[in-house]
């Protein structure tokens, strides 16, 4: 029914799954050896997935690895990375997938532009709508647990001009005390902030995080960037870190009182099956059957038989779509993930 196109964000994970895919009597490959071959492997299906809904419906999918190298995400590798994503979509087409999610960086590469694939008998999505639903539900739940009332909170969005960042601010704009918006491109940020101000909302923005961070009761970080610098966090701030590589995780050491959780994640209460079972080799999760919102979005599209490109482009995610996706998620037994970060469950 569906295909998930993805990439890995670190070499130890890659080493683990590459060695798991090889037969047991072969010697383990070192990371150095794997680095020499990994980027040359053409995109291909790695394992099949089976997911069952409490409604009784069962769907089947395949995970297609792009073999994009985790340390080659910068602009100078853009052309070869885009080609890898296109080859992965071809692989999904060959495998007769009807619905395809471009996971993480792979959708950012195409900027959600799926025009080249219109003649294929398949629909595509970035998965950003359900990711946004889980980010927002996570923030609402954390605020409640920490006795914060949203309309008294200042909410900082890092990556405010991105697809998920804009979806979050459009959803929250009438319900929080003030939105603090941050991105690196000043003109884009200014245009977006001015648009929200004209709509009558209380907005503050800056390309310098330190102008905003000390005021933020809640931070939503959805930037596609490494090494985000932030120093002055408010005491006991709630941080939803949903970006990759993890945007603010390294701040945990210096700011022990903040509540930082990995956002945008769901938990499939009915479980899932991977064939062969590489679950242990792909990601570390401190709880069973967790999944990225983007991947779960295509699963829900398959359950619901949605034959249209669901999340596309930048800035097209509406409140109605966010709510609808979350409704489908609950209907098919997929809940917001428990709070966790790299140290474990919170
Ligand atoms: P976009 O590329 O559309 O947006 C990224 C945003 O981040 C832009 O506003 C960009 O603006 C900003 N940005 C990048 N670097 C910085 C920085 N150092 N400081 C401040 N702002 C920055 O990405 P998406 O909205 O599609 O995705 C956002 C993140 O969410 C990604 O990291 C992605 O991997 C992750 N994601 C997580 C999912 C999940 O399931 N948990 C699913 C899908 C995506 P500018 O260039 O002006 O700085």
Describe it.
- With 346 residues, the protein is an alpha/beta fold.
- The chain folds into two domains: 203 residues, no CATH class; 132 residues, NAD(P)-binding Rossmann-like Domain (Rossmann fold), CATH 3.40.50.720.
- It is 32% helix and 21% strand.
- A six-stranded mixed β-sheet has the order 5-4-1-3-2-13, with helices on both faces. Strands 8-7-6-9-10-11 form a six-stranded parallel β-sheet, with helices on one face. A three-stranded antiparallel β-sheet has the order 14-12-15.
- Strand 16 and strand 17 form a beta hairpin.
- Helix 5 crosses helix 6 and helix 5 packs across helix 10.
- The radius of gyration is 20 Å and the shape is globular.
- The two termini are 35 Å apart.
- The mean pLDDT is 93.
Search tags:
346 residues, alpha/beta, Rossmann fold, 2 domains, six-stranded mixed β-sheet, six-stranded parallel β-sheet, globular, binds NADPH dihydro-nicotinamide-adenine-dinucleotide phosphate
Q: Encode the helix/strand succession as letters.
A: EHHEEHEHEHEHEHEEEEEEHEHHEEE
Fraction in beta strands: 15-25%
Overall tally of domains: 2
Distance between the termini: 35 Å
Averaged pLDDT: 93
Offer a quick outline of the entry.
With 346 residues, this protein is α/β, with parallel strands linked by helices. It has helices at residues 11-21, 31-37, 78-94, 105-110, 128-145, 163-172, 186-198, 279-282, 293-304, 319-331; strands spanning 2-6, 44-52, 58-65, 99-102, 123-125, 154-158, 178-182, 203-206, 218-221, 238-241, 259-262, 265-268, 272-275, 290-292, 334-336, 340-341, 344-345.
């Amino acid at each position: 029914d569906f295909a998930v196109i993805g990439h890995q964000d670190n070499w130890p994970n890659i080493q683990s799954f590459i060695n798991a895919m090889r037969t047991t009597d072969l010697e383990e490959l070192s990371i150095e050896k794997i680095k020499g071959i990994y980027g040359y492997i053409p995109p291909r299906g790695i394992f099949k997935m089976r997911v069952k809904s409490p409604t009784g419906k069962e769907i089947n999918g395949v995970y297609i690895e792009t073999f994009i190298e985790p340390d080659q995400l910068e602009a100078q590798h853009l052309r070869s990375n885009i080609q890898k994503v296109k080859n992965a979509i071809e692989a999904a087409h060959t495998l007769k997938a009807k619905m395809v999610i471009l996971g993480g960086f792979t959708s950012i590469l195409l900027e959600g532009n799926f025009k080249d694939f219109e003649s294929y008998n398949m629909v595509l999505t970035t998965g950003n709508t359900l990711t946004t639903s889980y980010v927002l539900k996570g923030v609402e739940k954390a605020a409640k647990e920490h006795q914060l009332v949203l309309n008294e909170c200042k909410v900082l969005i890092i990556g405010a001009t991105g697809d998920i960042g804009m979806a979050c601010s459009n959803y929250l704009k009438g319900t929080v005390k003030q939105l603090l918006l941050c991105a690196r491109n000043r003109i884009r940020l200014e245009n977006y902030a001015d648009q929200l101000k004209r709509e009558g909302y209380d907005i503050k923005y800056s390309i310098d995080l330190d102008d905003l961070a000390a005021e933020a009761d809640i931070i939503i970080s959805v930037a596609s960037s490494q090494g985000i610098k932030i120093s002055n966090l408010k005491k006991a701030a709630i941080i939803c870190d949903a970006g990759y590589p993890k945007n603010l995780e390294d701040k945990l050491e210096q700011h022990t009182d903040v509540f930082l959780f990995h956002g945008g994640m769901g938990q499939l209460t009915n479980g899932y099956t991977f064939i062969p079972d590489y679950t242990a080799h792909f990601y570390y999760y401190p709880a069973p059957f967790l999944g990225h919102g983007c991947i779960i979005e295509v699963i829900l599209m398959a359950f619901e038989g949605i034959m249209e490109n669901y999340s596309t482009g930048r800035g097209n995610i509406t409140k109605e779509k966010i709510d609808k996706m979350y409704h489908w998620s609950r209907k098919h037994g997929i809940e917001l993930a428990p709070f966790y970060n790299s140290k474990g469950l919170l």
